């Protein structure tokens, strides 16, 4: 049977699985052909706590397999395996949130426990993380397809966006012992359930994303946006102010729940380090708001506003420039789309024909019934436009069938915040993976690839080349312990 005859969701699953198989094959090939730059990954000193006992190497039945797995653990993966094995031993290890190491520990003590006598506990921990992250990536891809199809009502556009995600330049991190896969799964999955009307399930998934990465807590902004839209509908359309207050209160409580895992982890670190009595007081313990995470990022990694703006870091800015450019392009495109839909048409007549054509392939969809405030905003936009002739290609179709463009607003605000943080505050090269779970980047890439404008399509091909080149480069450098984002 031809692949084009298969259901789009099945094709997404096929592409996701194939991308992981190809990536893991690339990693194995590079590891076979080249010697790692740093061979210290397999070193494993005993845990500081006596409650954690390392397994003697002479008790392992398959030592070569164990050595191969352990030597594949590089960069931040070393921290995650160590935390899963020995707990949080040092101050700087609290920069790594607990969801991944806890999951690795639970899997190694349950599902994969029979493998411990064969390859050892540390290798089983690593193997658990690899399997978990690759499964999480596949599920995240399926969620991205469902989310994209929900918004655009176009399976072809959703399929293109999902394929781009399978080839995203940070792919190596989604199949390694990093938190990108879990974060993407719970962030994108939470977005899908939120826009499908399952606010409670979305809240739980967003909270889990905040247990994987600190920026997962920012997903609370989506909850706030939907609460605000519903409150507007309750107040203006239903004339029920008490209902509007209740909706806003529920949104606030859900947002607090999403922040809770991160804040509880900071409290756990405070009790372990500042109140244990076994260590000298640390400077951050005396702060008015004793937040360890910010202290670690500045003290150990040099993270801070404009601290990375140095001449010697210019190569890293160049390394990050494609991702930053793609993010900015996505922000500009959807910002213009929002403006063109909510400004009176008389203010839009100065637009060029080229810009009209750039919007021509944007997919249309019905309004989502779950957002009462959205319909009111669109009615206001139509009234503001009056009966004048629309001037953009989007307006060639009826307003009732236009995409629910107001839903792009929280996505763009979120991406703009993340891009600003990556460029001005963080190590800028990390933006390649920091922004990799942002759906608008893949929606924009999908639009460019399908554009009728030849110059736009050339940009789409360039995006594809960039994605593939970074996969090849990342699988070579990262897996052999060379610096890569």
TrEMBL record:
Membrane spanning stretches: 12-33, 93-112, 124-145, 157-177, 183-208, 220-236, 242-271, 291-311, 317-337, 405-426, 459-482
Gene Ontology biological process: GPI anchor biosynthetic process
Compartments, as annotated in UniProt: Endoplasmic reticulum membrane
Coarse class of the protein's main subcellular location: endoplasmic reticulum
Top EC group: transferase
GO cellular component: endoplasmic reticulum membrane; mannosyltransferase complex
Topology versus the membrane: Multi-pass membrane protein
Coiled-coil ranges from the UniProt annotation: none
Residue ranges of the region described as Disordered: 359-398
Cited InterPro entries: PIG-V/Gpi18
One Gene Ontology molecular-function label: alpha-1,6-mannosyltransferase activity
Pathway(s) the chain acts in: Glycolipid biosynthesis; glycosylphosphatidylinositol-anchor biosynthesis
Keywords: Endoplasmic reticulum, Glycosyltransferase, GPI-anchor biosynthesis, Membrane, Transferase, Transmembrane, Transmembrane helix
EC code: 2.4.1.-
PANTHER family membership: GPI MANNOSYLTRANSFERASE 2
Family as reported in the entry's similarity comment: Belongs to the PIGV family.
Record function comment: Mannosyltransferase involved in glycosylphosphatidylinositol-anchor biosynthesis.
Protein name listed in UniProt: GPI mannosyltransferase 2
Lineage: Eukaryota, Viridiplantae, Streptophyta, Embryophyta, Tracheophyta
